[in-house]
Design a protein that fits this description.
two-stranded antiparallel ribbon, single chain, 7 strands, alpha+beta, 282 residues, 14% strand
């Protein structure tokens, strides 16, 4: 893949976030990729390359993570090229079912997605060594439903592994670019519909954010309602996608896992191996 191929490819915006913009890229040969274009990077060119190559080397070993294919660091453009998934993100599927009247995802599909995300997190959290020259390899840092890409067989791939350690948050002061001049301020992204997530770079925050994703998959209205456990008083319509008592029991057990993940005390949250064990018993 050459820079000329990338710049000449047809593109279309498919998502935005505080980190940047995601575009669908169709190369001249017909290959389709996703391009993650950063609004602002937090490190200089050499360090950017070192970090993205390291997280790509680690992440591309896991079948439950979106693989990185290439990257570019130029004066005005910084992006990463990744695998593309035509089913889109979990956030797209969930919102599409609600807003456009599409058939809601069946429970077996939701549970398959949950298992895939948990396996991706397990792979990340088990990295040894956990860090490498100011780069934390054993945390994701940005787990949310829009970063969960879904395959046609309803397995899922977690994207953006390590990307928060490449890009500045919008609240950060403008950083100098490679010319020594102050970079232009970023364009604020549109508001995101997702729940409030923890932004601390830690495995405990990853677990909390995974819990938020579980709540979204279960169709619960918001984390405040769930944390108060009022959700337990709602009748079975909470799980409108369930067909039969067996599926309702399984979804309720996943809700228990979600509640433990979003515990306000980070030390009280389960680790990913405990979560996988619980999922295996469902």
């Amino acid at each position: 893949m050459t820079l000329r191929q990338v710049l000449r490819a047809s593109v279309g915006v498919i998502g935005e976030s505080p980190l940047g913009m995601t575009e669908k890229m169709v190369l001249l040969g017909g290959k389709i990729c996703a391009v993650k274009r950063f609004r602002r990077v937090a490190v200089r060119k050499r360090e950017f390359g070192r970090r993205i190559e390291r997280v790509a080397h680690v992440g591309n070993q896991c079948e439950y993570l979106v693989h990185v294919l290439a990257y570019l660091y130029a004066k005005r453009i910084k992006f990463v090229v990744c695998d593309y998934y035509p089913m889109g993100s979990l956030a797209d599927l969930l919102s599409g079912a609600r807003e456009q009247g599409h058939t809601a995802l069946e429970w077996k599909h939701r549970f398959k997605i949950i298992q895939s995300i948990a396996k991706a997190i397990s792979f990340i959290h088990s990295q040894n060594p956990p860090s490498d020259k100011n780069l934390q390899l054993n945390v994701h840092g940005n787990i949310k439903s829009s970063n969960v890409m879904v395959n046609i067989d309803f397995t899922a791939r977690l994207s953006d592994y390590g990307f928060v350690q490449l890009a500045d948050h919008l609240s950060s002061a403008p950083a100098d670019d490679d010319t020594g001049q102050q970079a232009e301020p970023p364009i604020p992204p549109p508001p995101q519909p997702e729940q409030v997530l923890e932004t601390t770079l830690s495995r405990e925050s990853d677990i909390y954010n995974f819990g938020v994703v579980l709540i979204e998959i279960l169709g619960c209205p918001n984390t405040n309602v769930v944390e108060s456990k009022k959700v337990r008083k709602i009748d079975d319509r909470l799980f409108e996608f369930c067909r039969g008592r067996s599926e309702e029991k399984q979804a309720s057990r996943v809700l228990d896992i979600a509640l433990s993940c979003i515990n306000s005390l980070s030390d009280a949250r389960p680790n990913i191996q405990q979560i996988l064990s619980c999922l295996g018993d469902i």
